[in-house]
Sequence to fold (466 residues):
Amino acid sequence: MIKESPRACSTAIQRDIVPAGDYYIQIIKQGQTVRLVDLEGNQAADTLFYSANDPGERYSATDTIREQGNLYLTAGSILKTNENNDLLEIVADTCGRHDTVGGACASESNTVRYDLEKRGMHACRDSWMLAIQEHEEFGLGKADITHNINFFMNVPVTPEGKLTFEDGISAPGKYVELKALMDTIMLISNCPQLNNPCNGYNPTPIEVLIWD
Amino acid sequence: MTLDVINPNAAECRYQTTLNSGQHWSLLVRRDIQMTLTDLSGGSNVGMLLYNPTQLSEKYNAPDTLKCQHTFKLTRGHCLYSDMGRIFCSIIEDTFGWHDTVCGNSHSSHIQARWGARNYQQDRNDWHQNGYDSFLVELAKYNLTRRDMAANLNWFSEVGASDDGQLALKRHSKKDDRVTLRFEMDTLVVLHTCPHPLSEAGHYPRTSVQLELMQSQPMAADDPCLNYCQENQRGFENNSLYHFGLQTLYRSMP
Ligand SMILES: [Zn+2]
Fold:
């Protein structure tokens, strides 16, 4: 569902650019709103969320999918934890649909999906691995790197049960906005994938804005 | 429950047990063993998680499994992938045709809302168990916690999606439907027989599933899982590297 935000960029308390292939980790306080902007279009922001007070409680794709009875995320979606609690709500969305089935790219899955020799290529999961190594203060480990959201990605399912990776329905300047319903750690890998159309074979930066 | 304990390596050796609904089970299943699940009653659901027993952080990865094979449903020919690009097991037989791996588990709150609270005092072993707690119990036996829980499989439950993503539990297996998994590496299998989280059955389902283990046949060159797609061929190459089977790994070289 397309829903524009009433928030002006000028009133944000924090603005950051995340280049393609980098990670971004940040605490969003309960009641704060975060906006992710697809600056150049066709980008994928592979994102995980955790309770800041108890990182063992974290975003769960299956709980979210089951509770809303729908595969796609958009304005109005409540993101659920593995304890089936409310973690965040998508309060604005100018893209219309975000994927949470396709998961993140990884060096290991790249060998299967594309070529055994692609293992050396940079991938989202490696960005997350570096993030948890460089930020021990969040208390995250490999077991916490789970099934994520791919903001701006379009992964439709056909009636015959096929999973397809379509060109993005996003475009330059499209955004999604989330309100934190508990203190939340947000961990983004701005996808470096060069092998599929999820980011048009050309990974580009995203912007992160936060409002009180 | 039977097992040829005199000669457990014999090709004809089998183990079989029956799980009623609401149970949980686990076993370290070795490479080259196959597991057949048969729905003895119809209407069953089997939740399943897979781990590498020598490196428990390597676990079943639903997204990689689906996107590597460009599929939303799981059926014969599909392989079940770990997060490390390897194949835990292959689906070598399936009479049902469409198994779910995106809907996860029921929590106790769902079961209570639909069919009443779990109550051992009153119901003994017919109590209303839920999938999430069942996994927690079984995982604790291996020092695993909720942090280690991944998106699970739901055998015998077909969940389809409409154009706009609305999900529906469309079909359960009928009596005698079965699925056979051939294990391609040693795998810790954790499962429960609790209802599918989208089940709207009038009563808490009372079903039974037979679980059978036996030696598998070696994979042939025309194996349907190996040849399902090029991705699976590369997945098996990763397994060969894991097992250090270099003759397979480099079979494409002159
Ligand atoms: Zn990626």
